[in-house]
Write the structure tokens for this entry.
Amino acid sequence: MRTLVTGAILLVVAGLMLSACSNDPSVRITSEKPAAPQVASRSEPIFYNGKTYKLDFSSKGSGLYDMSVSGMTSKQQKDAEAVATSSLGYFACPDGQKGKLQSKPAYKDAKWRMQARCG
């Protein structure tokens, strides 16, 4: 008799706990990936290979970003690409995605300029 009463009590408690998990509209379960955050524009000092460079980037819409890296010479294209793509991944891409170049970098007015997107 005692186990029957204990079982009934446990059943009632379990039912109350489940009813507490009702359809709360503030909780949404989905398997969809979040959209990439849209960062309007940003300017950051980036420490790379022992030196500090300046990164500027702004959203062009559709996940495309105009980027520039200043403080490097015209012979540092690979470094500028590395700074831009890794920084875009850190500041704007969701779920650890990396930045990918969409245009070949061009050196003008002491800045490396390029376009990139998350991917």
